[in-house]
Amino acid sequence: MAASIVQNILNSFDTNSKEEWVVKASQDLKGKAIEDLSWQLNESILLSPYYTASDVPETDTAVLKESNPDWQVGEYYEITDYAASNKQLLNDLMHGLTAPYFSFNSTPSLEDLEVLFEGVGLEHIACHFTSNDEGIYLNWLALLKKRTIQASAYFHLDAAYASSVKSVHINASAYYKGPENVHEEIKNSLLVAKAMLSQATDKQLLADQLQFTFLVDNAYLINIAKLRAFKLLWTFLLKELNINVSLPFIKVKFAPEAYGEDEEDNLIKATSMAMSAVLGGANHLVVRPISSAPRSKRLARNIQLILKHESGLNKVADPAQGSYYIESLTHKLVNYCK
After folding, report:
1. Which of 52, 47, 20, 53 shows the shortest CA–CA distance to 35?
2. pTM of full prediction above 0.85
3. Dihedral through CA 303, CA 307, CA 308, CA 309, nearest 10?
């Protein structure tokens, strides 16, 4: 019933051809050529200022609808004082944090982890660890055994371990050089993944354990298309290697130069970048605070909470599907990076 109502509304609008759009746009530009608004992303990809239904490619993106639209709300913690960090962590978890990202200056002992996670229901959150120190992993397992619980954890280790959710990390952000080089960012990340999978004894285990970190910037539509294209190319790679197809786990953070000098302007940029990451299918997102003030940290977290609970973006898988511009750009990136 609802679908027919929507269709009736859509049918009430006149259908205009691409040629008609060009004529109208040229009139609005007062003689300026519409081609002047195109963006030459690289030597092979030219982005038009507009796309219509006739430009939508035949790329099958149905697999993107299989993703879980919800994402983990992340924040970074540089741990030096375990008791003080525990107090801050408990407060943040009470205010919307779901997936803290921990960095340590030395390997924490089991006793250190007990102090850090005192009063924390680990089975209800996802913990991320930046180090490839296997000692952290072993002490984490010891903590879970002592509490007799199971909990989600993500590590940057050099080998795949079935007892963690994700244990091997590929830093796609290392290949980031701005939106003009988005194709290289995707291609290099896939080449690294392919090399690792090809050499793995248990390809399926490694594929299940891999996670990727990408950067987003102020190129809103490119951010969305980049993450969508990577997910599609990842499924192609798994098929090529005869590995069960599943979507990759993607972590997203902001590019270092994404912010300017004006804090209020940066807050708008943060919202836009966060939204592009979510629309592209991020599984874990860290919104960088606009300053070191405690209020900025709360605002950064609230951006994600608003996108979830007020915008409902955690309810729809691949919400960008059907956008003429994004579908066309996704298709171009997929073809270029194959």
Report:
1. 47
2. yes
3. 90
3-class DSSP assignment, residue 8? helix
Tokens of 78: 């540089």
d(Cα 157, Cα 126) in Å, to the nearest integer?
17
Domain boundary among 32, 55, 78: 55
Judgement on whether residues 250 and 110 belong to the same structural domain of the protein: yes
**Residue with tokens 């997203």, as numbered in its chain:** 252
Give which of 155, 120, 113 is closest to 134, Cα–Cα.
155
> Which residues, in sequence order, are CB contacts of 85 under 8 Å at separation 6+?
77, 79, 116
Residue 83 sits in the same domain as residue 23: no
Q: For residues 182 and 229, state if they share a domain.
A: yes
The phi-psi region of residue 99 (left if phi > 0; otherwise alpha if psi is between -120 and 50; otherwise beta) is: beta
**155, 251 Cβ separation under 8 angstroms:** no
CATH number at residue 107: 3.20.20.240
Residue 137 corresponds to which tokens in the numbers above? 């992993």
Does one domain contain both 35 and 84? no
Per-residue tokens: 238? 């798994």
Minimal CA–CA distance to 77: which of 110, 114, 117, 109?
117
Residue 9 structure tokens: 């509304």
Looking at the structure of the chain, the number of domains it has is: 2
- Walk along the chain (338 residues) in steps of 10 and give the mean pLDDT of each run: 69 79 85 86 86 82 93 97 98 97 97 98 97 94 96 94 88 96 96 97 96 98 97 98 97 97 96 98 98 94 97 95 93 92
- Report the C-alpha gap between 311 and 64 in whole angstroms: 20
Q: Are 196 and 206 in contact (CB under 8 A)?
A: yes
Amino acid letter, residue 201:
T
| The dihedral sign for the CA sequence 39, 253, 314, 316 | positive
Do residues 76 and 85 make contact, with C-beta atoms less than 8 angstroms apart?
A: no
